[in-house]
Amino acid sequence: MSLNEEINKLKEKNGVAILAHYYVEGAVQDIADYVGDSYYLSKIATEIEQKTILFCGVKFMGESAKILNPEKHVIMVDELADCPMAHMIDAETIENIKAKYEDIAVVCYINSSAEIKAHSDVCVTSSNALKIVSKLPQKNILFIPDNHLGTYLSTKMENKNFVFHHGYCPVHQDIRKEDVARAKKEHPEAEVLAHPECSIDVLSLAHFVGSTSEIIDYATKSDGHSFVIATEDGVLHQLRGKNPNKIFYLVNEIQQCPGMKLNTLEKVYDILNSMENEMLLNEDLRRKAQIPLTKMHELAQ
Ligand code: 13P
Ligand code: SF4
Prior knowledge:
By secondary structure, this protein is of the alpha/beta class. Helices cover about 45% and strands about 15% of the residues.
């Protein structure tokens, strides 16, 4: 039996749904039941009937699934798979900034720990942030932890006063404007598609800015023939699979998220055998972190 067949057999036997982000390796995306961006994955986790979710992604994704579905078992493929940005601010800093404003909403990018979420008013992802922040009544927006996404949003919403934090994604921050300019020169016919975790200098050179699934949709629907991709290289699997006649270039040779790449097919098989690495959360923390995530789902409708 092939590894894929073994995985499917174990998945059925254990009543598991496999959820995967677009940044994990292609072979893992292919065995997943659901593949998507952060918003889609947090939503689908609330809709599936299986009692156990095997998450192929990083910790904040599995944590969000557990926060929203306390009755389900959420298992991580590798418990070391984490997003550094998720830990770039702490509760004390949030409370100190909040105390300086009377009318402020703490808007927390979903790439954050449960503790950070528990001190926030609403969560957002890159695909719904604009919609959600524009619906908030508060004038002041403390946007945490990603200063690049926050800065990008602030350019679209001049009626809000953004307060930023200095968090960032190391993978997207490594995509520099000089590299994008060079890629544009090398491929003048190509459109540049960028994730909003890139710096504002990079985004100003892009033809389209969007979440991972929005980038995939844009390229798939576009009449264009070639694209420069300014995000993690895992999206190439879907981009090339859905668009065999189009050409995709990365800005740099290496655009890889170390945490995401810890999710391998062999580990998926091992975990389905052992059913270890269960995501467990303190109930008080879970309840507090559920409030901004539920608010995100309400406002994103
Ligand atoms: P998306 O929500 O666009 O999938 O982004 C998740 C992420 O971690 C980007 O680095
Ligand atoms: Fe975190 Fe960046 Fe990896 Fe996304 S690509 S999970 S933001 S480190």
